Design the sequence.
């Protein structure tokens, strides 16, 4: 969470490059700022998301835009065979690798630098996919959803934790003031990056409406797609199950 507001308007590789550089810059203070700026609620949100994922012992999971691995660690607590932790930013993965050395079963985390829109993974290779506060940063969200469907086994679940905008107009306006005027100053002070944390509110504003995003999920082969709002809608969880039919159906361009 951080960076230039104009980054939201960039497309393709240009945006990916900007996002990668941005997260590398703030990687050292990323965990502290996430916990501080969410009032510690990010921990509870991730736990809820992982419960919805329904992790089973001996299965394989993919955590996209893993950052420093807090989501991957929550999955790891439930005894999977493997968690593939993928991110664009190499410095984020370096921190994750260091953290995982101190985790129980940390050797089950496989760090992988890569692009969520072009996963270098075989078809139907994982039992679940998670994305925590990351899909806002993908230039082509629909393509990334298609890749999630491709690598998921039929019946596997996609669970996306995201800041999708608060549905209540009054609360959204009040929270918007915090996002635009308070959060950037705190983020800049702690991260030491003057540009950091001005990007976050702009990326939230640019995120599609809930129904639109759910429509994208359904078009890419996810059934039972729904959105669950947490903490008055400050955070939202999008959940869908990969249908068996989507294994052979072509994904829309």
Sequence:
């Amino acid at each position: 969470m951080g960076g230039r507001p104009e980054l939201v308007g960039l497309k393709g590789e240009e945006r990916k490059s900007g996002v990668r550089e941005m997260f590398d810059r703030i990687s050292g203070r990323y965990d502290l700022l996430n916990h501080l700026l969410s009032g510690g609620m990010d921990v509870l949100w991730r736990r809820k998301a992982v419960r919805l994922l329904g992790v089973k012992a001996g299965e394989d999971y993919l955590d996209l835009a893993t950052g420093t691995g807090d989501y991957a660690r929550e999955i790891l607590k439930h005894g999977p065979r493997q968690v593939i932790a993928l991110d664009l930013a190499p410095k984020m993965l370096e921190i994750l690798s260091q953290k995982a050395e101190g985790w129980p079963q940390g050797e089950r985390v496989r760090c992988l630098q890569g692009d969520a829109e072009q996963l270098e993974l075989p078809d139907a290779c994982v039992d679940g996919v998670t994305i925590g506060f990351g899909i806002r940063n993908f230039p082509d969200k629909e393509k990334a959803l298609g890749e999630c469907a491709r690598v998921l086994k039929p019946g596997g679940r996609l669970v996306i934790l995201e800041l999708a905008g608060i549905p209540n107009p009054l609360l959204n306006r009040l929270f918007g003031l915090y996002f635009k005027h308070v959060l950037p100053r705190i983020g800049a002070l702690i991260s030491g990056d003057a540009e950091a944390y001005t990007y976050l509110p702009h990326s939230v504003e640019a995120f599609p409406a809930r129904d639109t995003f759910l429509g994208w999920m359904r078009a890419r082969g996810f059934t039972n797609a729904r959105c669950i709002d947490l903490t008055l809608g400050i955070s939202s969880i999008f959940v869908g199950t990969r249908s068996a039919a989507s294994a052979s159906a072509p994904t829309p361009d």
